[in-house]
Design brief:
Elements lengths: L1 H5 L7 E4 L6 E4 L3 H13 L14 E2 L6 E13 H12 L4 E7 L6 E9 H4 L2 H8 L5 E11 L12 E4 L3 E2 L2 H7 L3 E3 L6 E2 L4 E5 L5 E3 L27
Parallel strand pairs: 8-13
Antiparallel strand pairs: 1-2, 3-4, 4-6, 4-7, 5-6, 8-12, 9-11, 10-12
């Protein structure tokens, strides 16, 4: 109900009902628009589950073909990271428009690309990690073009999921941190299939962070060896 009330002041938002009574299809003007809505609802105390974002396709009445949105992207990044940025765009079906040095005299490379909006999903966070937070990204809608056949690789890393409901233990974190980076710490409560971290490989993986150490009267050869627990990602 709150989503439909939001339409009175958020005129760019669209809400549609689905086959399920507790699911709604929400459309907006880009990722930032929907991110602000989700964060506002979270701060107001709503509990919600969000699915992966998808782009809005449209049918060209003249050609009869399905089209998808493309964006014009300009990236300013230090020269040492320009190669990694170009590889990232090429892997997401981007088309290089222009490339050169910044006019301000700094050792910054300016890269301009045309890329499908599908390829932009998750690109910003990945690029910031690759460039160590030095990249400056500007994007704007360009046009609709014929849909590219096949899937566009949006993420090269999956998620770590909680194997069962319970309380996170330090022993479980010690074993799980070898699989990727965690969002949770010891004494946090989790539920089954909750996203608790970033997998270091493609695909999702269930890990048991609630696992407790077996108490026995046997001493092992590695009893004195301990592994430090990495701080979780905030």
């Amino acid at each position: 109900i709150c989503l439909f009330k939001e339409l009175d002041r958020n005129v760019a938002l669209q809400v549609e009902e689905t086959d399920s009574a507790d699911k709604y299809a929400v459309s907006g003007r880009g990722q930032l628009h929907l991110t602000v809505l989700i964060e506002t609802m979270r701060r107001e105390g709503f509990e919600l589950e969000v699915g992966p974002p998808v782009v809005i396709y449209k049918l060209n009445e003249e050609t009869g073909k399905e089209e998808e949105p493309w964006e014009s992207v300009e990236v300013r990044v230090p020269e040492e990271y320009s190669g990694s940025v170009i590889d990232m765009f090429n892997g997401r079906k981007g088309e290089l428009v222009d490339m050169g040095l910044d006019d301000n005299g700094e050792s910054m490379t300016v890269i301009k690309y045309l890329i499908p909006t599908r390829g932009m999903l998750g690109l910003r966070s990945e690029m910031m990690s690759t460039s160590r937070g030095t990249a400056i990204i500007d994007s704007v809608f360009d046009s609709y073009r014929p849909k590219i056949t096949g899937d566009i690789s949006a993420r090269d890393k999956g998620s770590l999921l909680a194997f069962e409901s319970g309380v996170v233990t330090s022993f479980g974190c010690e074993n799980a941190q070898t699989r990727g980076k965690l969002f949770v710490k010891s004494t946090d409560e989790t539920y089954k299939d909750m996203i608790i971290g970033i997998h270091q490989r493609p695909g999702d993986l269930s890990v048991n962070v609630c696992k407790t150490k077996a108490l026995t009267n046997m001493r092992s050869a590695t009893k004195g060896i301990t592994v430090g627990i990495t701080a979780p990602i905030e």
